[in-house]
């Protein structure tokens, strides 16, 4: 034994040999890095890792990407909801944050950061999750996110057949019991939806709307939600389109919030100005989730969509552009009417279930007739001026009273004065602590508005009369048939 120990090299000899080998390895690595291009290095590393994994490793890895072909990966969504519930002592790091601006003191939400390991147990099997994020080199292309699930090769089939369905069911249960809704807006620079907590107080019970109309909307929503089999049997996508039209301040946004709260659906608020083209629109809309509301407000503000195709043709004829082949069919960049129609009622409309699409506009007459037909905008709801019934609902909500001696005069004024529910609510809020003073203030406001409308009518009549007289005195000028002097009050 003693002779054997004497034959062993000394510690200094071992260290010297290790230093020589390390220096040689570093030299070889430096030479290879200088001589072999980066893509070739990555290829060699990948092949070497695969070789080691194939013959030496007993593990198997499932990879779940954020997008699956042309649409969002529902398995990825389920994992994203499920994993924060499996955070345990072995988790080495976490993302914490809150987007609830209404309750800054609420506990922060948990999210999984990049390269964080989550250990889960299922039927006696140990499973390891990791989130990998590859940053995009181009600002308009989102980062690529993938979840990696590592397990033993021998349990691969059990994980695939039982564990993933377990994740999907658990995620569905979590989403169905969610207490908070989110509202999403599309970030064009980062090419993704970003959310905030949606806490809007509007309910059908508080809307200043005719009871029959409210009941019709709720019945229609209930019918839509409960008719999944019907839509499948008749071969139609499970979606519903609503058009809310009327003057500003008539409660269109409040109705959208009431629908979201009634159905417990998240809201995706899309501004067409943030969409580059039709292809971008398809990618954006296929990234929305099922059981959600897609809101497109003030659709008439998009010239390409609000003008019908006949008007566009006439405009081009006036500009002398007919026959030109060097000009594309789209008048301006961005989303085209054809692109929007193809999504809401074309083949792409089947990429998702239980979705409600709501359009709002102040000017229904500006919309292309192709947008208005059933299948695209199934239900047209006119949001008009305040009615006596609407006023009484607002008085109950804001003042806490259901009747008063001043209700009669206010009803009479509301019947002849065009006033929006928003205007009435604002007047009642000024002195909501004194109902009598608030009602008197509303009467004063309505009388002032009535007098102003009368003055405007008189002024318009005088201007029209002066214009007619001017045309009559000018013998060389042809009469302008568009100025007839008639006053049309809506």
From TrEMBL:
UniProt record, GO biological process: response to stress
Reactions catalysed, as given in the entry: ATP + H2O = ADP + phosphate + H(+)
Record-annotated AAA+ ATPase domain positions: 238-387
Composition bias, Basic and acidic residues: 466-483
InterPro entries, sorted: AAA+_ATPase, AAA_N_dom, At3g28540-like_C, ATPase_AAA_core, ATPase_AAA_CS, Mitochondrial_chaperone_BCS1, P-loop_NTPase
Keywords: ATP-binding, Hydrolase, Magnesium, Nucleotide-binding
Region annotation (Disordered) ranges: 310-329, 461-490
A GO molecular-function descriptor: ATP binding
Keyword Hydrolase: yes
Cofactor dependence: Mg(2+)
Keyword Metal-binding: no
Pfam families associated with the record: AAA (PF00004), AAA_assoc (PF14363), AAA_lid_At3g28540 (PF25568)
Family per similarity comment: Belongs to the AAA ATPase family. BCS1 subfamily.
The protein's name: AAA+ ATPase domain-containing protein
């Amino acid at each position: 034994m003693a002779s054997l120990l004497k034959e062993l090299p000394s510690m200094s000899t071992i260290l010297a040999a290790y230093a020589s080998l390390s220096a040689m390895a570093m030299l070889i690595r430096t030479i290879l890095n200088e001589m072999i291009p980066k893509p070739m290095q990555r290829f060699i590393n990948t092949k070497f890792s695969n070789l080691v994994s194939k013959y030496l490793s007993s593990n198997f890895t499932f990879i779940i990407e954020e997008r699956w072909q042309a649409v969002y990966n529902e398995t990825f969504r389920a994992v994203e909801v499920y994993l924060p519930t499996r955070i345990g002592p072995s988790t080495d790091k976490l993302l914490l944050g809150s987007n609830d601006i209404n309750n800054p003191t609420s506990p922060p939400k948990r999210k999984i950061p990049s390269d964080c390991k989550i250990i889960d147990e299922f039927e006696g099997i140990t499973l390891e999750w990791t989130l990998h994020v590859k940053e995009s080199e181009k600002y308009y292309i989102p980062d690529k996110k993938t979840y990696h699930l590592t397990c033993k090769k021998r349990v691969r089939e059990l994980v695939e057949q039982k564990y993933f369905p377990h994740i999907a069911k658990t995620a569905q249960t979590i989403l169905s019991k969610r207490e908070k809704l989110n509202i999403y807006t599309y970030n064009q620079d980062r090419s993704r939806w970003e959310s905030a907590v949606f806490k809007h107080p509007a309910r059908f019970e508080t809307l200043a709307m005719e009871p029959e109309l409210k009941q019709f909307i709720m019945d229609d929503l209930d019918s839509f939600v409960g008719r999944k089999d019907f839509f499948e049997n008749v071969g139609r996508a499970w979606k519903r389109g609503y058009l809310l039209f009327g003057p500003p301040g008539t409660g269109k946004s409040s109705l959208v919030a009431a629908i979201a709260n009634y159905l417990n659906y998240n809201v995706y608020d899309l501004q067409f100005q943030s969409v580059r083209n039709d292809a971008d629109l398809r990618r954006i809309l296929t990234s929305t989730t099922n059981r959600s509301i897609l809101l497109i407000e003030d659709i008439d503000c998009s010239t390409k969509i609000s003008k019908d195709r006949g008007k566009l043709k006439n405009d081009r004829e006036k500009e002398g552009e007919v026959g030109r082949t060097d000009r594309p069919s789209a008048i301006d960049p961005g989303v085209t009417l054809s692109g929007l129609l193809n999504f809401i009622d074309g083949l792409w409309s089947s990429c998702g279930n239980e979705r409600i699409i709501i359009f709002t506009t102040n000017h229904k007459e500006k919309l292309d007739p192709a947008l208005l037909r059933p299948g695209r905008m199934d239900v047209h709801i006119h949001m008009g001026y305040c009615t006596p019934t609407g006023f009484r609902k607002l008085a109950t909500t804001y003042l806490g009273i259901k009747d008063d001696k001043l209700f009669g005069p206010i009803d009479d004024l509301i019947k002849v004065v065009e006033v929006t529910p928003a205007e009435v609510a604002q007047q009642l809020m000024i002195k909501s602590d004194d109902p009598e003073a608030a009602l008197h203030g509303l009467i004063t406001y309505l009388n002032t508005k009535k007098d102003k409308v009368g003055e405007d009518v008189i002024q318009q009549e005088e201007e029209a009369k002066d214009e007619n007289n001017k045309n009559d005195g000018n013998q060389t000028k042809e009469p302008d048939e568009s100025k007839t002097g008639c006053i049309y009050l809506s």
